[in-house]
What we know:
Shape of chain A: elongated
Number of strands of chain B: 13
CATH superfamily of the domain at 35-120 in chain A: Nucleic acid-binding proteins
Low-confidence stretches of chain B: 658-663
Structural class of chain B: alpha+beta
Strand order of the largest sheet of chain B: 2-13-12-11
Helix content of chain A: 10-25%
CATH topology of the domain at 520-619 in chain B: Tick-borne Encephalitis virus Glycoprotein, domain 1
Shape of chain B: globular
Number of helices of chain B: 20
Radius of gyration of chain B: 27 Å
Helix content of chain B: 55-70%
Largest sheet of chain A: 8 strands, mixed
Oligomer: heterodimer
CATH architecture of the domain at 520-619 in chain B: Sandwich
CATH class of the domain at 35-120 in chain A: Mainly Beta
Low-confidence stretches of chain A: 122-131
Mean pLDDT of chain A: 74
Structural class of chain A: alpha+beta
Strand content of chain A: 25-35%
Mean pLDDT of chain B: 89
Largest sheet of chain B: 4 strands, antiparallel
Radius of gyration of chain A: 22 Å
Strand content of chain B: 5-15%
Amino acid sequence: MPRTKSPARLIIALSVAGVLAIFLVYVAIAGGTPQVKPSNVAQHTGSVVLVGTVVSGSVRPAANDGKRFLLRDRDGSARFPVVYRDAPPDQFKGGREISLQGKVHDGVFVGQPGSMMTKCPSKYQAAKKAA
Amino acid sequence: MAELGRGALVIALGLELWAVGAGGYAAWRGRRRLAASAQNALYAALGAIVVAALVLEAAMLRRDFSFTYVAEHTSRKLTDGYAAAAFWSGQEGSLLLWLLILSLFSAGVLALTRRPARTLLPWVVPILGVVGTFFAFLLVFVTSPFDTQPPPADGAGLNPSLQNPYMLAHPPLLYLGYVGLTIPFAFAMGALLARRTDELWIVATRRWTLLAWTFLGVGQLLGSHWAYVEIGWGGYYAWDPVENAALMPWLAATAFLHSVMIQEKRGMLKVWNVLLVIGAFLLSLFGTFLTRSGVLNSVHSFSFSSVGPWILGFIAFVTAASLVILFSRLDLLRSRTRLESVVSREATFLYNNLLLVALCLTILWGVIYPIVSEAVRGETVTVGSPYYNFFLRVFGLPLLLLMGIGPLVAWRRASLRSLGRTFAWPAAAAVATGVALLFLGAGSSTPGLIGYTFSAFVLASIVLEFGRGTSARHATAHESWPRAFTSLIGRNRRRYGGYVVHAAIVLLAVGIVGSSAYDTKSTATLRPGQSMGVGGYTLTAGRPRYTTVPNIVEGRTPILVRRGSDALGTLNPGQNYYKAEDQTSREVAIRSDYLTGEDLFLNAVINKDGSVHLEASVKPLVNLIWLSGLVFIFGSVIAMWPDAREQRRLATRYAEQPAYARA
């Protein structure tokens, strides 16, 4: 006796295809935002997410209750000056990792106010020494 | 004392290994006494892990800084409550909490399903043992909470933002959810290994799955509220990878809780259900991995960690092993029946599942996209809120609508005529709501207007279901209206508890739509006496004042709040400076209007010249989000509440089969 075709499988197949199509269209159109380190900011143009560690002792006041500081690579020493013209989150201070959205024009990074992100407070702990 | 903790963990590891080895052999060879010994090993492991946890907790409360972990997370000035909660504020303690909760769940499920799932338990025990062994191994060999050091004079203290009552509840609830998903996974694998591919494993773990799902949902909601009242950015969800990591298993478990109903009623989707439960468990492990690997730049990820590769390896092992088990039993998992119509209750459940899984997978894709792009393009590319919000609308709005459609459609096949009759009232309510909102100005956000219209449809369908059921009982059982209503729920707890949960999701949706699509924001720097306006409120700054309490300097700026000519009182946003931790923490001020659900949210930074940088936002209906949590718990409790009639019915249906089935 021949097997009858299952509409469930057709529904699943069509749904999966539909999801993939929507997804591909979205990604193709909207794309994402490159995440860059201080050492390679200058190689980019347009929107980026700048990720790095705040250099201890470099933090100074800036306009609009903001901060002026140096940012370095998480695993390197290249430094990049940042002026953030908005009040940073509570966890912001030297030695901590942050991410910051903004745009790069001619090698100059302009941060977007309100976009600075520090880590959840539970996640700051000292590096474990190698055994 | 540290030796006692370490020793207890080593004993726990040995007992878990015994549960795996002896339990697996006993299940394979059908050795009853050995299987009982393996089960007892899991009970004993719980005892050992409780000892380890008590040792660490006692060290926290005594501020025994010879424990490195205690010195890193507590201080002498920290109150006892927060010192106790600091147990799970770091990586080692949170992994110990994982193991403790897993052991509690394991012992609980063994004790409570001893009779109904007797045929499955011999295979379930080694599966639970494998998971327990892995976490005990991590704590013994990779990252121990019992490392010691020469004690410093004082500890580093607990981060000020964690000194919040939510710290006592949010992390344990999330862990209860994550870890609880181990139980349905272990039973699914156990059922496959035992070749019992009927619905017994689903029935045996239904309440456990529901419990884990409820904890995970409530845990996330508490985390959102914590962020809302503490962090000061005015939001409650940021699509951070680790936040998403908790949402994904919840979505997979939600799909599972719905699709098992199709398997129970129609014997369909057996493979799908096993895949969902594997997926939910893997996603819970993935969340644990994300916080500890440092592979993604997340607000919540630990900066330095050596356990990431171990967890990734375990995920790979679980994936491979569970798929091998599943494919080896595919011949036993054929559906008894087929989908008869695309317009039926089971079809709407299927659509619901597909949308939930699609949402889950797109979130997963967004989370791992930086890793994929790094591997493929050599450049890390992140996707932000626009990506997630887009897919939340694409999949979330149809899901919302299906919540109203599904319960009203007949099983097997529904005619268009019956659908017209069934949906007339809910559709009319939805259209009326949409038109009214349009006239009230809600058309400024199309997704918001659609969301509200769909919400009205779902609420109307829920009310209709309760109304029809109560009316039927009133007529047939000749009960009074209140009695008919309560007995309707009492006799169908799972169904009507589910409807209450649906109502909670509607409240959540309305709250999210209102607070995100129709909110108003304004920022200004004000000197004393100066004013600003936001969302119909006028805010006037006063002169900052400072008070000192032990360890904290509290700075507050009084903000006089007016609406028109009505003075609504004073809010006091500001900052706390914690001396011991040398850190500042913002203290937001919120004025909630419980009648309308609206919040006025103020976040202030006090400048040295006495001015205040004030961020003000008005968030309509945001309080419905928090209210939805209470309704969600209420509905879940109804659905979980033990039902003797149901137990008898199921006992008959899944009458005992031979206690041991060879693999």
